Amino acid sequence: MKINDRKIALLFVGFFLLVIYAVPITQAIVEYGKEKHIQAFDLLIDATVTPIHRAHALHTQAIHMAALSDSMHDILADTQALSNGRLAEVLDEALVALSGLKKDAMTVNRHVTLDSALPQFRIFDTLVQQCNAVYQNAGEPQSGASLDSIKILVRHLTQMYPEFGAMTIPWLLAHNCRYIFWNDKYLRPYEKEMENASVFATTVRPQMQYFRYMLFQDLGDRGVLGRDGWFFYKPDVDFLVRPYIRDSRSIVIDPNKKVITEDPLAAIVTFKKQLTARGIDLLVVIVPGKPSIYPEMLSPGLKSSASGTFSHSLDMLRDLHQYGVEAVDLFHPFVQERLNDIQAGDSLYLQKDTHWRGRAVRLAARLVANRIKRYSWYTAGTTEYTIDSVIIDRIGDVGNMTTLPVFKIHALSLAFAPEKTKCYQVYAVERNAAGGVTQQTLYKDDFHDSRILVLGDSYSRIYQTDEPRSAGWISHLAYELSQPVASIVNDGGASTLVRESLSRRAKLLAGKKLVVWEIVERDFRFGEAGWKDVSLYP
User: Fold this and answer.
1) Residues 6+ apart with CB under 8 A from 360
2) Is 32 exposed, middle or buried (0-12, 13-18, 19+ CB in 10 A)?
């Protein structure tokens, strides 16, 4: 090869390497300059550091459980310690420790979580059962047998999660590779993180989104532009066009999406059984998504006559009934109520938001309250409430999720106008002996004395804890029942996260007769954290 040819080849190779590595090097420099962690190192950290820290943490927690089991043994042998409530304290600490240990055991790294139904995790549920048995039978011979079982199981835990020495670290790292380098559950979200954090993407993407919207009315991957300026949340639409979540086709419908392995119906049935064992009823409330009730505003090819007729939630309502789970049907009443839109001067849903308006809030509360009143244990409340209307400006969440409003080039920007909507605030009324009103205060939950606990998502949060406050469907449910309720709400997390929150605060179930579980229909497929079984600890 001639010298000139060699120089050309070296220049070509150098240019090729520059093109390949310019992007990650630039990204690393920018992240280092902003004092952020360098994301390109995350994969290396998860392959080497994370498994060592995880193994050490699991071993430490297993040893802690062994110490707690020894404490239980000492307390049972000490009549005075048994009588002063020390056993209950240690058992509470053990149950919390078991919950944390199971969670850490299931969490391999930042993206990969193992299925809680795997055989190796049954030991945790068995330990919980035995801890409960020790508490219930404290001072009886049965408690000793349960404690012996706990000690055997804890010994097995310490064997499952041994302390790793220098000689076993290579095996640990090799074992961990299958959860990273050959695992799409890790690589796909890692790739997505890299895309979202890319300095090039974050610089160019807003301009491209803006011009795509201006030229093609494209809202991006989070929104769908309907008719007459209506915005729809894309997961709401995807829920309707994809197969029913319990249909076998859902598993393989799109290989680029997360494979669906969890059954929402099974999780709901399990939750019902857990509540039934405590003498508590379960009432499921499936909230229709906006396109289910206003399909004609999504596409001119759809007619208003299709309203409430083609949602997979109708199949879920049928399946829930077959498995003995009570559920309130909001679909048919919402279809009837939308016939009053012209007379009412508004729709049941906000035009540029995923959520419902005040009319739908009050209707849902009334329907659920009517069902609650038919329970045999129900007694009418004695709290007096009143309602006052207020107009608020609501910034649509679909528009915000597109990130279009934050785009600015000098004076060029796009901001979607707020939407005025009427809300109905609920006030508790206090009267003096003569019957005169002395005070009106915004509705508040009663976690201590209420017999009803509401679990929900953003449909339970809107107007309730954000503007104008105490105007959400939870307040109106209390208004219809003339008594306050308790509530736990998690935006997008009604599928699993809200039950995990309840599990950590299970004492809230004391004195409860009913759990009302509100779930927006799209969460049957797209619920944050999926549909896991969650243990309810005492």
Assistant:
1) 334, 337, 348, 349
2) exposed
Task: Give 3-state DSSP helix, strand, coil % of the chain, rounded to 5.
Answer: 55, 15, 35
Pick from 326, 374, 378, 380: nearest CA to 513? 378
Structure confidence at residue 486 (pLDDT):
95
Summarised one tens digit per residue, pLDDT across range 163-190 is 877 778 888 888 888 888 877 788 888 8
Question: Which residue do the tokens 């609920």 mark?
Answer: 426
Higher pLDDT, 429 or 143: 429
The Cα–Cα gap between 165 and 429 comes to: 66
What's the mean pLDDT in 495-511? 89
CA–CA separation, 117 vs 375, rounded Å? 34
Looking at the chain, which residues constitute the CATH 1.20.120 domain(s)?
41-178
- Whole-model pTM: value is 0.71
Determine if residue 208 is left, alpha or beta; phi over 0 gives left, psi from -120 to 50 gives alpha, anything else beta.
alpha
Rounded average pLDDT over 78-103: 77
The DSSP line for 118-176 is SGGGHHHHHHHHHHHHHHHTTTSHHHHHHHHHHHHHHHHHHHHSPPP-TTTHHHHHHHH
DSSP 258-305: PPP---HHHHHHHHHHHHHTTT-EEEEEEEPPHHHH-GGGT-TTS-GG
Return d(Cα 261, Cα 270) in angstroms, integer.
Answer: 16
- Report pLDDT for 251: 65
Q: Any residues with CB less than 8 A from the CB of 379 and at least 6 apart, and which?
A: none
Among the residue ranges 369-383, 410-424, 521-535, the one predicted with the least confidence is 410-424
223 backbone dihedrals φ, ψ, rounded to 5°? -130, 160
Question: Of 413, 29, 27, which is closest to residue 206 (Cα–Cα)?
Answer: 413
Region of 332 (left: φ > 0; alpha: ψ -120 to 50; beta: rest) is: alpha
* DSSP class of 393: E
Choose among 327, 319, 345: nearest CA to 288. 327
Provide the pLDDT for residue 493. Answer: 81
pLDDT tens-digit series, residues 188-208: 888 787 777 777 666 667 677
Q: Which amino acid is at 380?
A: A
Kindly report, residue by residue over 453-501, the tens digit of the pLDDT. 999 999 999 999 999 999 999 999 999 999 999 999 998 888 899 999 9
Block residue for tokens 């309203």: 307
Which pLDDT score is estimated for 3?
A: 61
Cβ within 8 Å of residue 516, ≥6 positions away? 283, 285, 368, 372, 452, 453, 454, 455, 477, 485
DSSP string covering 180-217, please?
Answer: TTT-HHHHHHHHHHHHHH-HHHHHHHHHHHHHHHHHH-
Q: What's the token pair of residue 290?
A: 């906006």
Identify the CATH class of 41-178. mainly alpha
What span, in angstroms and rounded, lies between the C-alpha atoms of 333 and 240?
A: 19
Q: Residue type at 112? A: V
438, with CB counted inside 10 A (0-12, 13-18, 19+), is exposed
